[in-house]
Structure formats: structure tokens, C-alpha cells
Amino acid sequence: MKKHILLLTFLIPITLFAQVPKGFTPVKDTLGFKQKMETQSKLVNSIESDFTQEKYLSVMSEKIISKGHFCFKKINMLRWEYNDPYKYIICINKDKMFIKDNGKVTKYDINSNKMFKSINEMMMNTVQGNLLNNKDYKAKYYESDKQYLLELSPLQKGAKDFLKVIQLYIDKSDYAVVKVKMIEPSEDYTSIDFTNRKNNEPIADEKFIIK
């Protein structure tokens, strides 16, 4: 059961919106922040990072903790590889999505499925921090000494049914997204922390093909 829940974690966008965490205050110069974020995002052509994912479900007594490795490469290439507690891969290569589970590979055409297309766009934009000007979300900006916190609330009715808010934690030193936290209307949430991040190092295209 836990394995199927882990799959849903990525096939359905999830969110976290609660009160503003302690230690954060509203950003005064939001325009300056957005301009800097957009400038820095354009400089990033590839990302590699380890991640730890925490999934909270009110119907379960324990949180689901998963670990793995993440890769991103322009244009439109993404790979989430879970190594613990399960071996599981979600890979996006332009207009194709691959899922490998128990050695079996399933392939999807993103453009033929509105849900997959929406998920793909959200994932790509989240990784690069490009959700700032998305008209489908209402944004709030906060900051602490070391981080910015961007809260995105969906405006479209369909999205509101399964998504309450996306929180992006952004490092002030390099404007990298270090944490994504998402909360559903039920208050269930998924939190992903990125560590050991490397930018603009070569990643072979073959990394985004699963056979």
C-alpha cells in the first residue's frame, strides 16, 4: 500500500499551506526578488541532487520517508530515482514520461494526457523556480535571514480540489530551491528536501531514458 501511495505522491500534485513558519516576514521588495530569481534560473542548465521525501497521511500512523537522487536538464528532462525504501523511477524526457517499478517500464505520452501535461509543467517550473509569474497561482513572498519562502495558492477550481498550496524554500545565497512542501485540502502533505546539489555539471541524455 505504501508503494502505491508513493506513486500518487508524484502523479498528483500535492501541497502545503499553513500559517507562515516562525522566523519569516513578508518580503518588501517582491519585484526585486522576482527579477533576481528569474535571472538566476536562466543560468541553470542542469541540476543533480539527493533528496529526502516525507509524506504525511492522516489515515496512517507513520510518515512515509523515501530517499533518492534527482536530475534535471534543459530542455524538459527530469529524473526522480527512489532508492530507499523502494526502487522506483519517474523519468520525463520532453514529451514522454517513463515509470519503472519492479523492473517493469511503463511509457506515457505527456501531450495526450492533460493531467500528465499539467504535472510536467509544474514539476519543471518548480525545479527552476519559474512559477513566479504563473497566472494560475496567487503568490505570497516571505523571507528569513537565510531563505526566501514562496507560497503559491492555485486559483483554478480543478486544482483547488487536490491542491491547497505549494511552498518553495529558496536559499538566499544562490536562489536554489532547497525544499518543496505541499499540502492538500485535507492537510495531508508531502515535503521534499534537496541536498548535495550540483549545478551545470554534464548529464548524459541517456540518463533520461529508461529501458
Q: Would you summarize the structure shown here?
A:
It contains four helices and twelve strands, in the order αβαββββββαββαβββ. The protein is of the alpha+beta class and 211 residues long. The longest helix has 15 residues.
Give an overview of the whole structure:
The protein is an alpha+beta fold and 211 residues long. The protein has one domain (2-198): Lipoprotein localisation LolA/LolB/LppX (outer membrane lipoprotein receptor (LolB), chain A). The chain has helices at residues 2-11, 30-42, 114-128, 157-160; strands spanning 25-26, 46-56, 64-73, 77-84, 88-93, 96-101, 104-109, 137-143, 147-154, 165-171, 177-183, 189-199. It has a twelve-stranded antiparallel beta sheet. Strand 4 (77-84) and strand 5 (88-93) form a beta hairpin. The relative contact order is 0.23.
Pick out the low-confidence regions: 1-18
**Major sheet:** 12 strands, antiparallel
Strand proportion: 35-45%
| Average pLDDT rating | 84
Structural class: alpha+beta
The CATH architecture assignment turns out to be Clam
Cα(first) to Cα(last) distance is 25 Å
Approximately how much helix is present in the residues?
10-25%
**E-strand count:** 12
